[in-house]
Amino acid sequence: MPADSDITSFVESRGGVVRSARLTDAGIGRRAVEAAVRAGLLLRPRRGWVALPGARPLLVSAARFGVVITCRTQARVLGLWVHDPEGLPHVAVSENRTGHVGAKARIHWGRPLIPRHPDILEDPIENVLANIAECEPFEYALATWESALNKGLVDLASLARLPLRSAARRLLDEATPFADAGLETYLRPRLRWLRIPLWIQTWIHGHRVDALLGERLVLQIDGKHHVGAQRSEDIRHDAELLALGYHVIRISYQQMMFEWPAVQDRIMRAIAQGLHRAA
After folding, report:
1. Sequence-separated (6 or more) residues with CB below 8 Å from residue 118
2. Which stretches make up the AbiEi antitoxin N-terminal domain (predicted)?
3. Residues with Cβ < 8 Å from 58, sequence gap 6 or more?
4. What is the pLDDT of residue 257?
5. Using CA atoms, how far apart are residues 92 and 133, in angstroms rounded to an integer?
6. Based on the number of CB atoms within 10 Å of its own CB, is 175 exposed (0-12), middle (13-18) or buried (19 or more)?
7. Which of 10, 187, 205, 242 is spaced 20 to 30 A from 270 at the CA atom?
8. What single string gives the DSSP state of each residue in 197-227?
9. Distance of alpha carbon 31 from alpha carbon 199, whole angstroms
10. For residues 144-170, b (16+ Cβ closer than 10 Å) or e, as one string?
């Protein structure tokens, strides 16, 4: 009979939650598994699955309800930019599944782009982005897509080869891998109507700026927790840019998300004064 450490090490190597069949495949018999469950070394979230007591609760819940973590919930797990990380978890179920899922969650039905192996509890990134495209408003979805591209979790060429639906195709046409933070993504669709060149995450005299509109109008976007040393450094950098002949508009998270008309008015007034053009 395998040692308890062998069983728990095997389950840990599979993410802490695993199908019982995988234990059998590894030569760990049912009696050894049952003994580990009785000893409290393993839990049974659902028939056919075992989990370590310290496994991620999200994975344990997915196994318990027979679902796959997807959309904005899995995007958050992957460290992607998500507009609102709160709310019900988003999960996917098989296109052939019938009956009540049982979980308090936002359920995504239908055939996935990437087939899901019965063992997986977390959707592949392509499925995550496809669900985001259908679930979130365009701006929010675009920010998550660009976050995934920026982190190198997927690339535009491979996405383009997939049978994407119309909402995802629209995002594919718009998305770039250069936006570092989700808020920067909002600038392009919001300012496109100006027909003035807009560069995201560009370098000026050895410093990276969030956006450059035209030749001289710098847009800097502060996150929710933009304080302390970071704030002091940004003030210093703004002063350098001003000395070099740039005009800087700094936008807070609150302004970007909830006060955009006022921000747009500031930008329009700067453009009307020609502050986006080189002297």
Report:
1. 19
2. 7-51
3. 69, 73, 77, 89
4. 86
5. 14
6. buried
7. 205
8. -EEEEEEETTEEEEEEETTTEEEEE--TT--
9. 62
10. bbbbbbbeebbeeeebeebebeebbee
Alpha helices in 80-181 (DSSP H): 125-135, 138-150, 156-160, 166-174
The per-residue pLDDT for 277 is 94
- Location of structure tokens 């599979």: 14
Helices (H), 30-165: 30-38, 57-65, 71-77, 125-135, 138-150, 156-160
CA distances from 110 to 93, 94, 97, 102 (A): 7, 7, 9, 18
CB 129 within 8 A of CB 159: yes
pTM value?
0.82
Total residue length of the chain: 279
- Identity at 179, one-letter amino acid code: A
pLDDT band at 189 (very low <50, low <70, confident <90, very high): confident
